[in-house]
């Protein structure tokens, strides 16, 4: 331990253009990867613990492919617990078997077994991520998924190099124990002990000066930062002192470029920004880059900041060492933790590129509108049980007052085989069961007990569907990042308060709304998204704050097969895991 606590473990990066991956291909390439799920002892904050990893790496390895490539990832589970891997943001056209959420599209991979995720990256390019989709395993099982385009970037600035920036969270203790206690007693989970940049917490945490991310840059050059929020339970602000960020992509979709002093990125979201090294550094040659939480919850949270450095390259060969930072350092450009105005303004600035090469194909007319509350709930404590939520009750969460219960069999497999003895029904309510002042009700006295079950929404192939995600003030007005599997969607509108079906659709942006796979529903407000349901299969919709998913803030929708093979789900692979 002493050696680990005194030897420097900086991640210092000087990148060059990846010419081998950036070349053009005239034919489809199959890229193969091997993931071994295994334990490895990892030390952070001077705490050493066994950590669940892929190939012994923390964060896990980067998947780098080209638009149009076939991808095969053989996942071998070398630990005793179950696992699955999700390729977050990959549409999985006709290949829902490779999507990954446990008991939704597959049974878990058991200890000692393997499963090969096989899919094609179709009409997608940019920065995404992969992560475990079983329990809270994505606390450490995550990594970047980079799709290089076949055409040049739609911006003319020369890029010196590309820099993946992955945010995560670190617990000194056992994350599984945190989840288990939360579910056993119905209380809020213990918050993490640190945030990380590429697995490193940085010098503001105890015993962590040696664990600092430092990115070397040349003055006058421009860099593409691929920013990924893989944190478990926190939305994050990110900024670099004295530098502006030019946003050019969000969730692997090009945007109209705009400059900003900071970005807000929710768990599961990605943002590509251009950073030009155009400042004059001091004698250290360094500028702070930092991330801290955007907070809308009343629950305990990790009130800390992870920091790294942008180091300007010099001709000298001095030793690179992170400078000592006072804990009260004012981080230039970084918003305050509760700055909802900034978070909202940033989100409103995002617009699809909507060019001839990259059109914005938002559905102008819809076939179905679903309005669903996204809510926390306070459940009465069962008799003779100990409950540690507010008022000695239990915390849960729901959509339209339905708290999602995962079945014991894969929903996709049951759907494909037309099984009749299934654990789900197809009657998910398409509007709230009771109309009320969703964002104005008393957080505690107006709270409803939720219902539990596995109710699904079924739509025909090709349905133009609008989903209005309506926040509530139950327990707290909170920002919820909602992720949709298997489809991108367009955020056509959002606002504070209650959605008004008679007035709000008239204010939608149907010209260049942002296209995403994860949308933060504003605190005490709503977001309207439009989806072209053209991907047959079974698809998970859930809050990407893992504690809320554990409490049941999720639903599933099925897209039926269309006409012919090209509109139908592929058969299951032979090595599909069994329950």
Molecular structure report:
- It is a single chain.
- The chain is mainly beta.
- Helices cover 7% and strands 37% of the residues.
- It contains 6 helices and 33 strands.
- It has a 6-stranded mixed β-sheet. Strands 11-10-13-18-15-16 form a 6-stranded mixed β-sheet, with no helix packed on it. Strands 22-21-26-31-28-29 form a 6-stranded mixed β-sheet.
- Strand 2 and strand 3 form a beta hairpin.
- The N terminus is likely disordered.
- This is Laccase.
Question: How are the SSEs placed, and which strands pair?
Answer:
Blueprint (H helix, E strand, L loop, with lengths): L1 H5 L4 E3 L5 H4 L7 E15 L2 E8 L8 E4 L3 E8 L7 E4 L25 E7 L5 E7 L9 E7 L12 E10 L4 H11 L8 E4 L15 E5 L4 E8 L5 E6 L4 E6 L2 E8 L2 E3 L4 E7 L9 E9 L11 E7 L27 H10 L18 E12 L14 E6 L2 E3 L6 H6 L34 E3 L2 E4 L3 E9 L8 E5 L4 E8 L18 E2 L1 E4 L3 E9 L3 E7 L2 H6 L2 E6 L20
Parallel strand pairs: 1-12, 2-5, 4-9, 10-13, 12-20, 21-26, 23-24, 25-33
Antiparallel strand pairs: 2-3, 5-7, 6-8, 8-9, 10-11, 13-18, 14-17, 14-19, 15-16, 15-18, 19-20, 21-22, 26-31, 27-30, 27-32, 28-29, 28-31, 32-33
Enzyme class: oxidoreductase
GO molecular function, one term: hydroquinone:oxygen oxidoreductase activity
Family: Belongs to the multicopper oxidase family.
| Structural class assignment | mainly beta
The largest β sheet comes out as: 6 strands, mixed
Question: pLDDT under 50 segments (min length 5)?
Answer: 1-10, 12-26
- Number of E-type strands: 33
Helix content: under 10%
Instruction: Specify the number of helices.
Output: 6
Principal-axes geometry comes out as globular
């Amino acid at each position: 331990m002493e050696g680990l606590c005194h030897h420097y473990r900086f991640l210092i990066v000087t990148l060059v253009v990846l010419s081998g991956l950036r070349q053009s291909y005239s034919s489809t390439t199959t890229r193969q990867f091997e993931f071994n799920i295994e334990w490895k002892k990892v030390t952070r904050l001077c705490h050493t613990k066994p950590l669940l990893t892929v190939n012994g790496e923390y964060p896990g390895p980067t998947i780098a492919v080209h638009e149009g490539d076939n991808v095969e990832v053989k996942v071998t589970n070398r630990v005793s617990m179950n696992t699955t891997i999700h390729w977050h943001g990959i549409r999985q056209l006709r290949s829902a078997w490779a999507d990954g959420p446990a008991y939704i599209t597959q049974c878990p991979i058991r200890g000692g077994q393997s499963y090969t995720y096989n899919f094609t990256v179709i009409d997608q390019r940019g920065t995404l991520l992969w992560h475990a989709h079983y329990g809270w395993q994505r606390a450490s099982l995550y990594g970047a998924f980079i799709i290089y385009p076949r055409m040049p970037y739609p911006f003319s600035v020369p890029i010196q190099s590309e820099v993946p920036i992955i945010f995560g969270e670190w617990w000194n203790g056992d994350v599984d124990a945190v989840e288990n206690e939360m579910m056993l007693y119905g209380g809020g989970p213990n918050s993490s002990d640190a945030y990380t940049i590429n697995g490193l917490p940085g010098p503001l945490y105890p015993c962590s000066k040696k664990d600092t991310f430092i990115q070397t840059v040349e003055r006058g050059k421009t860099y593409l930062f691929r920013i990924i929020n893989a944190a478990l339970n926190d939305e994050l602000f990110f900024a670099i002192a004295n530098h502006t960020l030019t946003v050019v992509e969000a969730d692997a979709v090009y945007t109209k470029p705009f400059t900003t002093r900071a970005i807000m990125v929710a768990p599961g979201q990605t943002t590509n920004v251009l950073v030009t090294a155009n400042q004059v550094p001091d004698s250290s040659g360094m500028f702070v880059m930092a991330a801290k939480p955007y907070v809308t919850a009343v629950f305990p949270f990790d009130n800390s900041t992870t920091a790294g450095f942008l180091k300007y390259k010099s001709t000298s060969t001095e030793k690179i060492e992170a400078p000592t930072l006072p804990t009260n350092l004012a981080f230039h450009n970084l918003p305050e933790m509760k700055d909802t105005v900034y978070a909202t303004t940033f989100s409103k600035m995002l617009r699809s590129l909507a060019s001839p090469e990259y059109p914005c194909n938002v559905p102008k007319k819809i076939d179905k509108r679903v309005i669903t509350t996204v809510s926390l709930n306070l459940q009465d404590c069962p008799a003779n049980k100990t409950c540690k939520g507010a008022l000695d009750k239990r915390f849960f969460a729901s959509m339209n007052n339905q708290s999602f219960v995962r079945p014991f069999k894969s929903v996709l497999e049951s759907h494909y085989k037309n099984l009749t003895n299934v654990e789900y029904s197809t009657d998910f309510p398409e509007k709230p069961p009771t109309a009320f002042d969703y964002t104005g009700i008393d957080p505690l006295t107006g709270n409803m007990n939720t219902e539990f079950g596995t109710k699904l929404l079924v739509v025909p192939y090709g349905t133009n569907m609008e989903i209005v995600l309506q926040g509530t003030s139950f327990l707290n007005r909170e920002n919820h990042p909602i992720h949709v599997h298997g489809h991108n969607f367009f955020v056509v509108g959002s606002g504070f308060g209650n959605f008004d079906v008679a007035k709000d659709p008239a204010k939608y942006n149907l010209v260049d709304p942002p296209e995403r796979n994860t949308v933060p529903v504003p605190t005490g407000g709503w977001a309207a998204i439009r989806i072209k349901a053209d991907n047959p299969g079974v698809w998970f919709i859930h809050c990407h704050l893992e504690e809320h998913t554990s409490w049941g803030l999720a639903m599933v929708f099925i897209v039926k097969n269309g006409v012919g093979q090209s509109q139908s789900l592929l058969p299951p692979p032979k090595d599909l895991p069994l329950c």
